[in-house]
Design a protein that fits this description.
- This protein has 305 residues and is an alpha+beta fold.
- It has a domain at 62-140: Orthogonal Bundle (T-fold).
- Helices cover 33% and strands 28% of the residues.
- The protein has 7 helices and 15 strands.
- It has helices spanning 25-46, 54-61, 71-86, 96-101, 114-121, 153-167, 261-285; strands at 3-11, 14-22, 67-68, 129-132, 137-140, 172-177, 181-185, 194-199, 207-213, 216-222, 227-230, 233-236, 251-258, 290-295, 302-304.
- An 8-stranded antiparallel beta sheet has the order 1-2-6-7-10-13-14-15, covered by helices on one side. A 3-stranded antiparallel beta sheet has the order 3-5-4, covered by helices on one side.
- β4 (129-132) and β5 (137-140) form a beta hairpin.
- α3 (71-86) runs parallel beside α7.
């Protein structure tokens, strides 16, 4: 008899949920528990907030000397740099100094003066990372550079959990991290996939679109919830790493579909920074990627790809 197992954990500052479907309840529960353990392992490897994590050690020492990191961490950072190159710097794992500069890290919100912003930008940019694949080492070009994997780490954890479930023989599964990054494979009985609802970022009880997710991943980025206002102007938390400024364009939110949540997580941020035109150009060159855009003031989404 078919059954569904549902487990969850708190990691990376959000709720992760694992849904596993099949006929062997014991196998499903065992696999789901291992998937949860894998998510928690990834958090301890990548978290910026845990002082004992690989990333915390890297940030504390890499400006003084090359730091040898876990092969898994090196591979993910290498992939992040590749995605930075692909998006012309719209996605960048060194953006944290800017997040602090604008007060988003502390949740206070502040507008830096031009000198402070310029000085902060000197510590931002993926070109300031020195990667040595042969030695599995990473060094920073100067003091003050930081690596923060918040815009790719959740997606990576989702991917790893999915791989655990698939390797265990689970028939169909879905995993999400904070609802913003989701990946699924297979489908529950009598369905074409796992039902996903894209909610309006300003009105969460209002649905923008329903879709069936099968053997795909989807991630969403929006600045509608995290922002501050000064003199009637809104400053959102998604920053352009190239200019140091909060993104201001026609988009309210962006959802991205691709085969892996690692990719969709990073690209949802990049597309929000790039805007509609830049998103179209990227998707034209990458046929396996799709985007769902909601513009400011619109009630209907537009699909690209």
């Amino acid at each position: 008899m078919s059954c569904l197992i549902h487990l969850h954990t708190i990691a990376m500052g959000c709720d992760f949920e694992v849904f596993a479907f099949g006929e062997d309840r014991g196998l499903l529960r065992s696999a789901a528990e291992v998937a949860i353990e894998e998510i928690e392992r990834i958090e301890h490897l990548l978290s910026h907030y845990l002082p004992e994590s690989e990333i915390s050690y890297l940030n504390a020492h890499a400006a003084r000397e090359p730091v040898r990191v876990h092969p898994e961490v090196f591979e993910l950072i290498e992939r992040a740099v590749y995605l930075s190159e692909e998006t012309e710097g719209a996605f960048d794992i060194t953006v944290m100094p800017l997040v602090r500069c604008w007060g988003f890290f502390e949740g206070i919100g502040q507008i830096p003066d031009s000198r402070t912003l310029a000085e902060t930008l000197e510590r931002v940019g993926f070109s300031r990372l020195r990667l040595s694949a042969g030695n599995l080492t990473i060094a920073f070009a100067r003091e003050g550079v930081e690596v923060h994997l918040g815009a790719i780490g959740k997606g990576y954890a989702v991917d790893r959990a999915i791989e655990v479930l698939r390797d265990a023989g689970v028939e169909a599964a879905m995993v999400h991290g904070g609802h913003s990054s989701v990946r699924a494979y297979g489908a529950p009985p009598d369905t074409g996939g796992w039902q996903i609802n894209l909610a309006h970022p300003l009105y969460p009880d209002r649905s923008l679109a329903h879709l069936l997710l099968r053997n795909r991943a989807i991630s969403t980025s929006s600045a509608a919830e995290q922002y501050f206002e000064r003199a009637g102007r809104r400053y959102g938390h998604i920053l352009d790493p190239r200019t140091g400024m909060p993104v201001e364009n026609e988009l309210l939110c962006v959802s991205v579909l691709a085969d892996e949540a690692t990719v969709t997580d990073a690209l949802s941020t990049a597309f929000f920074v790039l805007g509609e035109e830049g998103t179209r150009e990227y998707i034209l060159a990458h046929p396996g990627v799709q985007a769902v855009l909601l513009r400011q003031g619109d009630e209907q989404v537009e699909w690209i790809g």
